[in-house]
């Protein structure tokens, strides 16, 4: 209040709100959210078990299993990189191995394909165990 008893008002110009991301960036975020799937530790362990089982997966299921294992490896690499795991020698080794296996095609020969699936399964399992041991991930089992 002023001495005369009138209420003094302070007015400041209000800036219009602008989103923190541009339209193109928002579209990119939305596109990534649309294809995102939650991490499923149970499915990961089921696929590892299928790859490492004494009885190899059926030939007609091998490509499908390889694709799921590639997805698991990609998610594990993303988790490790986000947690700055590249500073750990074990993580660096696992990240490199996972990236290499993920881009390799499944061999056409039945037994080479089984060997490849087992390498992918073993790496996925080892990577998962490491992430649990360093507490970047909760145990799925």
Structure description:
With 141 residues, the protein is mainly α. It starts with 22 loop residues before the first helix and ends in an 8-residue tail after the last helix. The radius of gyration is 25 Å and the shape is elongated. It has a domain of 96 residues. α2 crosses α3, α3 packs parallel to α5 and α4 packs antiparallel against α5. 60% of the residues lie in helices and 0% in strands.
Summed up, the helix count is 5
Helix-strand makeup class: mainly alpha
The Rg value, from CA coordinates, equals: 25 Å
Major sheet attributes: none
Q: Can you tell me the overall shape?
A: elongated
Distance between the termini: 67 Å
SSE arrangement:
Elements: H1 23-35, H2 41-52, H3 62-82, H4 89-103, H5 110-133
Helix pairs in contact: 2-3, 2-5, 3-4, 3-5, 4-5
């Amino acid at each position: 209040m002023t001495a005369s008893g009138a209420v003094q008002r302070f007015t400041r110009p209000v800036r219009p709100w602008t989103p923190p991301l541009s339209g193109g960036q928002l579209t990119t975020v939305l596109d990534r959210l649309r294809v995102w799937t939650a991490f499923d530790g149970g499915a990961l362990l089921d696929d590892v078990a299928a790859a490492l089982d004494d009885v190899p997966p059926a030939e007609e299921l091998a490509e499908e299993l390889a694709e799921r294992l590639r997805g698991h490896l990609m998610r594990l690499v993303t988790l490790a990189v986000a947690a700055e795991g590249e500073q750990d020698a074990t993580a660096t080794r696992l990240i490199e191995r996972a990236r290499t296996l993920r881009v390799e095609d499944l061999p056409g020969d039945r037994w080479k394909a089984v060997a490849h699936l087992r390498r992918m399964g073993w790496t996925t399992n080892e990577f998962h165990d490491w992430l649990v041991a360093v507490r970047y991930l909760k145990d799925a089992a």
